[in-house]
Amino acid sequence: MERQWWQDKVAYQVWPKSFYDTNGDGIGDIPGIIEKLDYLQQLGIGILWLSPVYKSPLADQGYDIADYYAIDPRFGTMEDMDRLLAEADKRGIKVLMDLVVNHCSDEHPWFQKAVADPEGPYGQYFYFRKGKDGKPPCNWRSYFGGSVWSLVPGQTDLYYLHLFHKKQPDLNWENPALRQEIYKMINWWLDKGLAGFRIDAIVNIKKDLSFRDHPVDRPDGLADLHPMFQRPEVQKGLCDFLEELKENTFAPHNAFTVGEVFDTTPDKLAEFIGEKGHFSSMFDFAAHCFGMHEKGWCKAVQPTPTDYRDCCFASQKNAAGIGFLANIIENHDEPRGVSRYLPEGADSDAAKTCLATASLLLRGIPFLYQGQELGMSNTVFPSIQAVDDVSTLGEYQACLEEGMTPDEALAVCARYSRDNARTPVQWTDGPNAGFTTGTPWMPVNPNYTRINVQDQQGREGSVLEYYKKLISLRKDEKYKETLVWGQWEPLFEDQEGLMAYRRRADKDLLVICNLSDSPRSLALPGTIKKVLLTNQEGGPQPGFDRYAAQPWQAVVLEMDA
Q1: Active site residue 89
Q2: Residue 561 above 80 pLDDT?
Q3: Distances in Å between the alpha carbon of 333 and those of 232, 247, 327, 328?
Q4: Which member of 13, 32, 264, 561 lies 3.0 to 4.6 Å from 20 by CB, making a disulfide possible if both were Cys?
Q5: Greatest CA separation found in the chain?
Q6: Please, are residues 346 and 457 in contact by the beta-carbon 8 Å criterion?
Q7: pLDDT tens column, 393-443
């Protein structure tokens, strides 16, 4: 594989609304990100992914864009954005933005013009369809619950398509004029100095234009829309769109792109992230999809550490010789990883750093999410009224329809809600966790008094300081060849709760993570030359070919050649 500028970097996702507020309005802003760039540099971050800061009504927290060329005043100004790019560049940090082009906002001028003249040119920017027998054109269920169709304002039998929120009308990629507008906008941002994009919901841009009904699968009388994406004609059309997108925008700029791609089989990986793939990388969602159910969160199964390992290993095997995956534990659309993948009660720093080691040294580019480096965990929801996330509200209703009590439904939603990741970053143990001097837009997690940057920074053994060591090891010139580009080989797959693998190039390294509360006696494939990193006192010693792994212990070992 040809080596690229981004492969030896560690990326970090900022959710601006909850990162750091500098003006006291309770909402994080771009100046707040600038103020914390030194913190990110010290952590070892080389790529900053900025979740949406475009002008938006925030119906879906910025993923409903009203103007692709404007910064929302709540986050700052375009001058602030330019300053962020310049200041990040001084620190060797490249900046990505979210590219949200499956849909826009119903407040975007395109949609407003389409509504005013459905038969005019802007009506072709969206999917407007007549109803059938007084009902929507088909029975697909939105990702957020309810029909994917809503009436066009002012119309009685003309609907527009929205796979997500009703304020997020889907853009019609079948229209070449629309595609050219999108390419122009992307190039405008890349010319401004962006290093690339995280590409949101991109597999949704190609639809089955027959809009046929699917079998009803829930009490709401609607049907899952995922089968539509599996149809060969849809998949082929998607790849045509993505290749045109790359050639008109990303390729000429040598931009880094990471796709939010679901529903892709192993035989399709090369099309997406191979040497001539549509994207530089794509997120590995295998562990996040594990245990999910077509009926929603009410039927979901919580993964065990062994399930997490098996998902990661399957992805590593599938991507071998093809390309780099983007490896994640959590993001803005998921609950906190330490609450999802560690057993209940495993809230120790050792357990959190063990999980971190298991993920960050896999082959691929690591993506951290804000607060992950502190071990931030799921928050507390006293009632459904405390929930902001539109997706969680839809899942709560689905739980009730499946016969759950309100308390049972709330407990399920609290486990999986996206709001868990959207609570403010915990900077200090002071008021509002040091996030704002005002009233935070979302309450801080009550555990901020014991989990915060102020407490962990500089404290040997803290989760934050361990993350710094882990990232530093991956960047170390002595070991980078092996940990970034080296081969990956699984070990001890027969042992429950043990995530161990080998990285080999000019060095032979073992990564052993005991994700369990049981000690393990392991016969190693060779003799230990050096202990490069451990998250606990005691452990393996040079010269030995055996190792007694303590509960929640992670080690990185250099082996004799």
Answers
A1: no
A2: no
A3: 28, 29, 15, 12
A4: 32
A5: 79
A6: no
A7: 999 999 999 999 999 999 999 999 999 999 999 999 999 999 999 999 999
Q: What is the structure's pLDDT at 437?
A: 98
Q: Which of 392, 415, 411, 414 is nearest to 341 (CA)?
A: 415
Asked whether the predicted pLDDT for residue 505 surpasses 80, the reply is yes
Share of the chain above pLDDT 70, in %: 100
The strand ranges marked E within 51-203 are 54-55, 67-71, 94-99, 128-130, 149-151, 158-161, 196-199
560 is catalytic: no
**Looking at 64, 98, 200, 373, which residue is catalytic?**
200
pTM: 0.97
Residue 126 CA to residue 186 CA, distance in Å, equals 19
| Interstrand relation of 94-99 and 54-55 (parallel, antiparallel or unpaired) | unpaired
| Per-residue pLDDT tens digits for 29-73 | 999 999 999 999 999 999 999 999 999 999 999 999 999 999 999
**Of residues 21, 29, 64, 260, which has the active-site annotation?**
260
Pull the structure tokens for residue 107.
């407040």
Question: Do 337 and 368 form a contact (C-beta atoms < 8 A)?
Answer: no
Q: In what order do the strands lie in the sheet with 149-151?
A: 128-130, 158-161, 149-151
Say which amino acid occupies 497.
G
CA distances 449 to 305, 375, 376, Å, are: 28, 13, 12
Sign of the C-alpha dihedral computed for residues 284, 290, 293 and 298 taken in this order? negative
